[in-house]
Structures are given as C-alpha cells and as structure tokens.
Amino acid sequence: MKAAVLEGVGKLVVKEVPTPQPKGDEVLVKVACCGVCGTDVKLVHGDYTANYPVIIGHEFSGSIAAVGPEVSGLTVGDRVVCDPNESCGKCEWCRAGQAVSCGSLAGYGVFCDGAFAEHVLIREASAYKIEDELSDETASFVEPVACAVHGADTAAYRPGEAAVIVGAGPMGQLHIQLAAASPIRKLIVVEPNADRAEIARKVGADVVIDPTATDAVQAVKEETGGVGAEVVVDVVGVPKVLESSLRMVKNWGRVVIFGLQPQGAKVAMEPFDLLTRHVNVLTAWVNPYTTRRALHCLTSGKVKVDYMITNRFPIAGAPKAIKLMEERPAGFLKALIVPGK
Ligand SMILES: [Zn+2]
Ligand SMILES: [Zn+2]
Question: How many A from CA of 233 to the centre of ligand 1?
Fold first, then answer.
C-alpha cells in the first residue's frame, strides 16, 4: 500500500509499504480520509517525539477491511473513527482514570503507524462505529473535536463570564464554537490572520483582536471593563503568546494551556502576579474519555467542521500538505489526506 512515512526529522517519504494484517483484537481500517494536524508538522520538525520510521496521521475515518480472530464487535464494512490515544488499561494512570498519562499510549500516527496511508491497523478498543448520516470527512474531525471538548470541560465556562480564545486556526475554531454555545456574556478571540478572524466572527466570536495591530492584553482589558476575562484558553502553542494569555485573565480567573508548545520551550511568567491575583493555570491535554461526546457533537451538527476543509491531497501530496501548514497562505485552514483521491 502507499503511505507517507516519517523516517526522521524533516524526512517525510511517500512510498510503498506492506499492507498490515490484523492479528488478535486488531482491525484493519481502509482509510477514507485523514486530517493534517499541527502535531504532524511538529513531528516532521522534530518538535515532538516520534518512533521513526512511522506513518503519521491520527485524525482519520474509514471502514473495516479485515478483522483479527479475537474481534467481536466489528465486521468488515463497518464505518469507524479512532481514538488514537488508546491506553493499556493496567498501569497506575489507567487505573486512576487518567489514561492519557499511560506510558503505553498507542499514539497512532505518532508512536505507531497512522493513517497517511491506504490502510491503518488499530485495536478494536480504539475504534468507534459511526452513524450512516455522518460523512467520512466530517467524521475525520472526531479527534480534534474530542480534544476541544476536553478543553471546554477544563475551561468550565460559567454563565455571564467573558472568555478569550487565543488562536482561530482549526483547533481555535472548535474552541470558539464550544465557548459560543455556552452561556458566557462575551467571547473575545485573538487572531492576527484576517480570514480566520472573519470566520471566527461567523461561528460566534463577539470581538476579534488582531495582536499585531494592537496590544492584545490591553484590548482584552478594554473589552472587559478594565479587569480582564474570567477564562482564557490558549490554543496557539507559542511561548510569547502564552505569556500574554497569562496577563489577559481577570483576578481569580482561569488560563487553560491547550496549544502544544515545542518540547523544551520555556515561558517567562511572574509567580508574584499569578499568586497575588489568584490566577488558576490549568492544562488540557488531548482527549481523555471525550471521543463519544465529540462524535455526538459532530453527528448532531452542533459542532460544524466542513467549512474548515480548504485543501485535499492524495497520499503522495502529504509533504505538500505539511508545507501548506507551515506557510499558511491566505484562505488556508485545514487540509485532508484522501487516499482515494
Ligand atoms: Zn490532531
Ligand atoms: Zn496505562
């Protein structure tokens, strides 16, 4: 089968590899499509640990092509999505309901082969059957939506609050929709890209601040009667941006670190300021136990994703898709790898 294999830092190679065969409780998924994620770019750059060589791609939908002998709940032809962060179920963290800390996370598309390929092998426990009315493309967003749902749970928006979402890329768009659907009084988005700002307004932002044109911290204060927002969700993953997010929050407010910073990156913060202002710094990492709710968000149409898809590539176009992510030309939001294309 054809696959995009990350052989080392900066070495994403499209080539023929053997089609895997399911053993035990594994299922072989024929990939319908797979989203290209910021994490894939970080993997290619070496900003996030991978197990080379590895087929990247973790945001996928498809149908069952073959099942192992111990599979009981899925049959050939079933349409599925995958929670790529499957855990062992046996370790300290798994037994405490903290499975994303599991030391044996499958990490399809990161630690083991993912879905920039015609087929991907996953365990039955990681697969979720999907409804007929959910399209392959919409379904492929289940993992990012599950991450955003965890972020929204962590932000715990309360009635009457002002919230800031920092960053209106594809993940930011999901955060904006979830925040806009909660009973907050004002949703402020920080985003320098004019196209993304425009779309952010359409999906629920009350105000969009361009941090390249104005001091974003000052602008958030002006929008909140001089005190800052009760909750700030930083979706960006850039140290300087997080530093300003920590200063936009109101006394006693919450800052959620959501955006993935490069491993080893450091952020300058002032503990005196955070302590005396009683700021809570929270984190929301990946998608613990939120895949089912994310599927409900997509199937019900409450979270919309189709408007984000701006580019589709065959597997051979994977390096081009990564380049597009790096360059972010005007109008670009989300690329999908579509093996049948
Ligand atoms: Zn992702
Ligand atoms: Zn575990």
Answer: 17
Distance 283 CA to ligand 2 centre (A): 20
Q: Amino acid letter at 87?
A: S
- Strand partners for 108: 112
Q: Residue 292 CB: number of other CB atoms within 10 A? A: 13
Question: pLDDT tens for residues 17-45?
Answer: 999 999 999 999 999 999 999 999 999 99
CA–centroid distance, residue 98 to ligand 2 (Å):
8
Q: Which long-range contacts (CB under 8 A, 24 or more apart) does 303-306 make?
A: 303/145, 303/148, 303/174, 303/177, 303/178, 304/177, 304/203, 305/138, 305/141, 305/145, 305/174, 305/334, 306/135, 306/137, 306/138
Arithmetic mean of pLDDT, 236-250: 97
Tell me the CA–centroid distance for residue 141 and ligand 1, in Å. Answer: 9
Tokens 């009350």 belong to 206
d(CA 293, CA 161): 24
* β-bridge pairing 249-257 and 280-283: parallel
Query: pTM to 2 decimals?
Result: 0.95
CA distances in angstroms from 336 to 6, 131, 157, 277, 311, listed in the order given: 17, 21, 31, 43, 6
